[in-house]
Amino acid sequence: MKNVTDSFVSLGHWPSAGSFGFNTDILATNLINLSVVLGVLIFFGKGVLSDLLDNRKQRILNTIRNSEELREGAIEQLEKARDRLRKVEIEADEFRVNGYSEIEREKLNLIDSTYKTLEQLENYKNETINFEQQKASNQVRQRVFQQALQGALGTLNSCLNNELHLRTISANIGILAAMKQITD
């Protein structure tokens, strides 16, 4: 340390002989050179360094502001998406409920129409049975009537003579003609 102070002291006392020499003390000369370079750098580089730091600070602040704006925009979009999701879920629930009620309504309508169809088929069946019973009854009556008529004709033919037979036929023809006039 004594060498350092000696080198500063020796700067003030230069010999007037005008000789130029080298200081061989490495530590003393390096410290002087470094202090001079640092002083020049600080004096001239202070503005440049502060400008660089200010620019860097502004870029960082701008990046933070942009990030905050993007974050706020993302939060808004997220809220909008959540609102849309809630609305869609509500609509889906309404469609589901309406769909279920519509299905139930269609099911009841189908059951009602099936019962009505079955009722109509039952009515048609009963009408067909009644018609077939009447038809069979009419056929049985016709056969019974024909057999009775044939039996009566057979009895009449064996019991009647020709004159009585002709009067009976004429009377029956008159009855049939009167029946024909009534039906017309």
UniProtKB/TrEMBL annotation:
One Pfam family of this chain: ATP-synt_B
Annotated transmembrane regions: 26-49
Keywords: ATP synthesis, CF(0), Chloroplast, Coiled coil, Hydrogen ion transport, Ion transport, Membrane, Plastid, Thylakoid, Transmembrane, Transmembrane helix, Transport
Coiled-coil region list: 64-98
Gene Ontology CC annotation, any one: chloroplast thylakoid membrane
GO MF annotations in UniProt: proton-transporting ATP synthase activity, rotational mechanism
Subunit details: F-type ATPases have 2 components, F(1) - the catalytic core - and F(0) - the membrane proton channel. F(1) has five subunits: alpha(3), beta(3), gamma(1), delta(1), epsilon(1). F(0) has four main subunits: a(1), b(1), b'(1) and c(10-14). The alpha and beta chains form an alternating ring which encloses part of the gamma chain. F(1) is attached to F(0) by a central stalk formed by the gamma and epsilon chains, while a peripheral stalk is formed by the delta, b and b' chains.
Name of the protein described by the UniProt record: ATP synthase subunit b, chloroplastic
Species of provenance: Acmella paniculata
